[in-house]
Fold:
Amino acid sequence: MRKLSFVLLSLALLFPFALKAQEGKSYVYTDASVFPIYGKAVPNTSATYERLPASLEGVTRKDVWGLAHHSAGISVRFRSNSPSIKLRWVSFGLATMNHMTDTGTRGLDLYTQDPVDGHWRFARSARPQRDTLNDVLVIGNMEPVMREYIVYFSLYEGVKRLEIGVEEGSVIDQPALDSPKKGLQRA
Structure:
């Protein structure tokens, strides 16, 4: 048990250094709006990652309208064979809260689908930086095989722009399934 604890602690301490080694690579960025966006009340809103259309501004209570600009519940799906994934995004602001971490307020969560059992697994969070432009290496050192991904947006701050970075020479494409609930695509 002591040996296992030592191994896990060593891996946890070395993980940030492994990601740093990935930063010297060249990445190609794709605007995430070209991929399926989930969690919006209607497809056509005034901003790409807003939940409600502008036509509801005068109809909806002021407090509800303010929350419509938050990105909670919005996600983007794609697939790629890149050994590492970067996310570059711009938040509406730099809100901080006493009860919530910056990752929950302005960060992003990346999930990937297990190719064996079809279950979605948490990969890692993209922690926001102190300015509004965030450029974060989320995962790296993976085998270059095609995987399905979902990027879940933060609970509060809205996202103005999101770009997905893959290593140069890798493929980034539309998801193979039209719905994340349908499971694995069988060949």
The mean pLDDT is 79. The longest strand covers residues 159-167. The beta strands are 27-31, 37-38, 75-80, 85-91, 108-113, 120-126, 133-139, 147-152, 159-167, 172-173. The chain is about 20% helix and 30% strand.
